[in-house]
Amino acid sequence: MANLLASVRPEGDPKIIESGPGSLTALHSTAKALGWFSIGLGLAELFAGRRLANALGLENRVGLIRAFGAREMLAGVMTLSTEKAAGLWSRAGGDVLDLVTLATAFDAPRQRQRTNAKAAFLAVAAITAVDVLTARAMSAQQRRNGTPKDYSNRSGFPRGAIAARDSADKYREMKPRASAGLA
Q1: What's the rounded Cα separation, in Å, for the pair 73 and 43?
Q2: Which pTM does this prediction carry?
Q3: How many Cβ atoms sit within 10 Å of the Cβ of residue 172?
Protein backbone atom coordinates (compact mmCIF):
# COMPACT_ATOMS: atom_id res chain seq x y z
CA MET A 1 0.00 0.00 0.00
CA ALA A 2 2.85 2.38 0.83
CA ASN A 3 4.34 1.84 -2.66
CA LEU A 4 1.01 2.63 -4.30
CA LEU A 5 0.65 5.82 -2.28
CA ALA A 6 4.24 6.84 -2.98
CA SER A 7 3.69 6.46 -6.73
CA VAL A 8 0.92 9.08 -6.83
CA ARG A 9 2.55 11.69 -4.60
CA PRO A 10 4.00 14.87 -6.15
CA GLU A 11 7.77 15.00 -6.73
CA GLY A 12 8.60 17.31 -3.80
CA ASP A 13 6.55 15.50 -1.16
CA PRO A 14 8.32 13.29 1.37
CA LYS A 15 8.49 9.62 0.47
CA ILE A 16 6.31 7.14 2.35
CA ILE A 17 8.60 4.44 3.68
CA GLU A 18 5.91 2.42 5.42
CA SER A 19 2.39 3.04 6.56
CA GLY A 20 1.57 2.86 10.24
CA PRO A 21 -1.00 0.70 11.95
CA GLY A 22 -4.62 1.39 11.16
CA SER A 23 -6.69 3.24 13.70
CA LEU A 24 -9.52 0.71 13.51
CA THR A 25 -9.25 -2.03 16.08
CA ALA A 26 -11.01 -5.36 15.77
CA LEU A 27 -13.65 -3.97 18.13
CA HIS A 28 -14.30 -1.00 15.84
CA SER A 29 -14.42 -3.29 12.80
CA THR A 30 -16.97 -5.51 14.56
CA ALA A 31 -19.08 -2.48 15.49
CA LYS A 32 -18.90 -1.23 11.90
CA ALA A 33 -19.99 -4.61 10.56
CA LEU A 34 -22.88 -4.73 13.04
CA GLY A 35 -23.92 -1.22 12.02
CA TRP A 36 -24.08 -2.13 8.32
CA PHE A 37 -25.82 -5.41 9.14
CA SER A 38 -28.38 -3.46 11.12
CA ILE A 39 -29.06 -1.09 8.23
CA GLY A 40 -29.45 -4.02 5.81
CA LEU A 41 -31.76 -5.90 8.14
CA GLY A 42 -33.77 -2.75 8.77
CA LEU A 43 -34.24 -2.23 5.03
CA ALA A 44 -35.42 -5.83 4.66
CA GLU A 45 -37.89 -5.40 7.53
CA LEU A 46 -39.16 -2.13 6.07
CA PHE A 47 -39.58 -3.22 2.47
CA ALA A 48 -40.29 -6.94 2.91
CA GLY A 49 -42.21 -6.74 6.17
CA ARG A 50 -45.24 -8.60 4.85
CA ARG A 51 -43.11 -11.44 3.46
CA LEU A 52 -41.20 -11.78 6.73
CA ALA A 53 -44.43 -11.73 8.70
CA ASN A 54 -45.92 -14.49 6.53
CA ALA A 55 -42.78 -16.62 6.76
CA LEU A 56 -42.69 -16.32 10.57
CA GLY A 57 -46.41 -16.70 11.29
CA LEU A 58 -46.76 -13.06 12.32
CA GLU A 59 -49.25 -11.99 9.63
CA ASN A 60 -51.06 -9.64 12.00
CA ARG A 61 -47.83 -7.83 12.96
CA VAL A 62 -46.61 -6.40 9.63
CA GLY A 63 -46.68 -2.84 10.98
CA LEU A 64 -44.65 -3.90 14.01
CA ILE A 65 -42.05 -5.59 11.83
CA ARG A 66 -41.74 -2.44 9.72
CA ALA A 67 -41.38 -0.33 12.87
CA PHE A 68 -38.67 -2.73 14.00
CA GLY A 69 -37.00 -2.12 10.63
CA ALA A 70 -36.93 1.64 11.21
CA ARG A 71 -35.56 1.09 14.71
CA GLU A 72 -32.92 -1.27 13.34
CA MET A 73 -31.79 1.25 10.75
CA LEU A 74 -31.50 4.03 13.33
CA ALA A 75 -29.48 1.77 15.61
CA GLY A 76 -27.23 0.93 12.67
CA VAL A 77 -26.62 4.58 11.83
CA MET A 78 -25.85 5.30 15.47
CA THR A 79 -23.46 2.33 15.59
CA LEU A 80 -21.61 3.74 12.57
CA SER A 81 -21.37 7.19 14.20
CA THR A 82 -19.07 8.31 16.98
CA GLU A 83 -21.63 7.04 19.50
CA LYS A 84 -20.89 3.39 18.80
CA ALA A 85 -21.59 2.15 22.32
CA ALA A 86 -25.04 3.79 22.38
CA GLY A 87 -25.83 2.31 18.98
CA LEU A 88 -24.72 -1.15 20.08
CA TRP A 89 -26.78 -0.99 23.27
CA SER A 90 -29.73 0.16 21.17
CA ARG A 91 -29.23 -2.87 18.93
CA ALA A 92 -29.13 -5.17 21.97
CA GLY A 93 -32.33 -3.65 23.38
CA GLY A 94 -34.03 -4.04 20.03
CA ASP A 95 -32.89 -7.66 19.90
CA VAL A 96 -34.78 -8.31 23.14
CA LEU A 97 -37.96 -6.91 21.54
CA ASP A 98 -37.34 -9.09 18.49
CA LEU A 99 -36.92 -12.19 20.68
CA VAL A 100 -40.17 -11.53 22.53
CA THR A 101 -42.02 -11.02 19.25
CA LEU A 102 -40.52 -14.15 17.69
CA ALA A 103 -41.46 -16.19 20.76
CA THR A 104 -45.12 -15.36 20.11
CA ALA A 105 -44.79 -17.09 16.73
CA PHE A 106 -43.82 -20.47 18.25
CA ASP A 107 -47.49 -21.48 18.11
CA ALA A 108 -48.05 -20.33 14.49
CA PRO A 109 -50.69 -22.28 12.56
CA ARG A 110 -48.29 -23.94 10.09
CA GLN A 111 -45.28 -26.12 10.94
CA ARG A 112 -43.07 -24.25 8.44
CA GLN A 113 -43.82 -20.93 10.19
CA ARG A 114 -43.02 -22.41 13.61
CA THR A 115 -39.73 -23.80 12.28
CA ASN A 116 -38.85 -20.42 10.71
CA ALA A 117 -39.72 -18.58 13.93
CA LYS A 118 -37.53 -20.91 16.01
CA ALA A 119 -34.61 -20.59 13.57
CA ALA A 120 -34.99 -16.80 13.57
CA PHE A 121 -35.15 -16.84 17.38
CA LEU A 122 -31.86 -18.74 17.58
CA ALA A 123 -30.21 -16.41 15.06
CA VAL A 124 -31.38 -13.31 16.93
CA ALA A 125 -30.25 -14.83 20.26
CA ALA A 126 -26.77 -15.39 18.79
CA ILE A 127 -26.54 -11.87 17.39
CA THR A 128 -27.80 -10.52 20.72
CA ALA A 129 -24.83 -12.14 22.42
CA VAL A 130 -22.47 -10.53 19.89
CA ASP A 131 -24.21 -7.16 20.33
CA VAL A 132 -23.97 -7.29 24.14
CA LEU A 133 -20.32 -8.39 24.16
CA THR A 134 -19.37 -5.71 21.63
CA ALA A 135 -21.39 -3.04 23.46
CA ARG A 136 -19.74 -3.92 26.78
CA ALA A 137 -16.27 -3.79 25.24
CA MET A 138 -16.98 -0.51 23.45
CA SER A 139 -18.42 1.04 26.62
CA ALA A 140 -15.35 -0.03 28.58
CA GLN A 141 -13.06 1.41 25.91
CA GLN A 142 -14.89 4.74 25.87
CA ARG A 143 -15.08 5.01 29.65
CA ARG A 144 -12.72 7.54 31.19
CA ASN A 145 -10.67 6.13 34.01
CA GLY A 146 -9.32 8.02 36.99
CA THR A 147 -10.04 11.53 38.13
CA PRO A 148 -10.41 14.28 35.56
CA LYS A 149 -7.38 16.52 35.14
CA ASP A 150 -7.57 19.98 36.64
CA TYR A 151 -6.61 22.66 34.14
CA SER A 152 -7.95 25.61 36.12
CA ASN A 153 -4.44 26.95 36.78
CA ARG A 154 -3.60 27.19 33.08
CA SER A 155 -3.92 30.40 31.13
CA GLY A 156 -3.32 29.20 27.57
CA PHE A 157 -0.18 31.31 27.30
CA PRO A 158 3.10 29.33 27.22
CA ARG A 159 4.97 31.74 29.54
CA GLY A 160 1.91 32.82 31.52
CA ALA A 161 -0.59 35.66 31.29
CA ILE A 162 1.72 38.28 32.89
CA ALA A 163 4.47 37.63 30.33
CA ALA A 164 1.90 37.91 27.55
CA ARG A 165 0.71 41.28 28.90
CA ASP A 166 4.31 42.52 29.19
CA SER A 167 4.96 41.52 25.57
CA ALA A 168 1.84 43.37 24.46
CA ASP A 169 2.89 46.49 26.41
CA LYS A 170 6.37 46.42 24.82
CA TYR A 171 4.83 46.06 21.38
CA ARG A 172 2.56 49.05 21.97
CA GLU A 173 5.52 51.15 23.14
CA MET A 174 7.57 50.25 20.05
CA LYS A 175 4.77 50.83 17.56
CA PRO A 176 4.77 54.41 16.19
CA ARG A 177 1.49 56.17 16.60
CA ALA A 178 0.05 57.29 13.30
CA SER A 179 -2.22 59.80 14.95
CA ALA A 180 0.64 61.49 16.84
CA GLY A 181 2.40 62.51 13.62
CA LEU A 182 -0.64 64.37 12.32
CA ALA A 183 -1.02 67.84 13.72
Answers
A1: 7
A2: 0.68
A3: 9
